[in-house]
Amino acid sequence: MSLTADEVKKIAYLARISIQEENIEQYSQDLSSIFGLVEQMNAAATDDIEPMAHPQHAMQRLRDDVVTETTDIEHREKLMSNAPARQDGLFLVPKVLD
């Protein structure tokens, strides 16, 4: 597939990039070669190939999703004891926005 100068300009406009007039021919060649490569990849027979999420058949080792922290009042008070400012069981932070 060969792109014309007008097509390159239109692509540049849609991509919101500016290109210099003397570079349009080079962009046309580069983009045409990219589109040629895409056409070659599209021509490959992939009907019998199962899609994969990752190129290696590796499974992530994930831990069980188990609650490890408690929310009892005694534990909360111990954590809140380090806070420089607190009120009604909440951390007080400096005001950032007016």
Q: What does this molecule look like?
A:
With 98 residues, the protein is mainly alpha-helical. It has a domain at 5-43. Helices cover 39% and strands 4% of the residues. The chain has helices spanning 5-14, 24-43, 73-80; strands spanning 86-87, 90-91. Helix 1 (5-14) packs across helix 2. The chain is elongated, with a radius of gyration of 29 Å.
In the predicted model, the low-confidence regions spanning at least 5 consecutive residues are none
Q: Roughly what is the average pLDDT, rounded to an integer?
A: 87
Query: How far apart, in Å, are the first and last alpha carbons?
Result: 57 Å
Coarse shape? elongated
- Individual helix count: 3
Order of helices and strands: HHHEE
Query: What structural category arises from helix and sheet content?
Result: mainly alpha
Summarize the structure.
By secondary structure, the protein is mainly alpha-helical. The chain contains three helices and two strands.
Features:
98 residues, mainly alpha, two-stranded antiparallel sheet, 3 helices, 2 strands, 39% helix
SSE order and pairing:
Blueprint: H1 5-14, H2 24-43, H3 73-80, E1 86-87, E2 90-91
Helix pairs in contact: 1-2
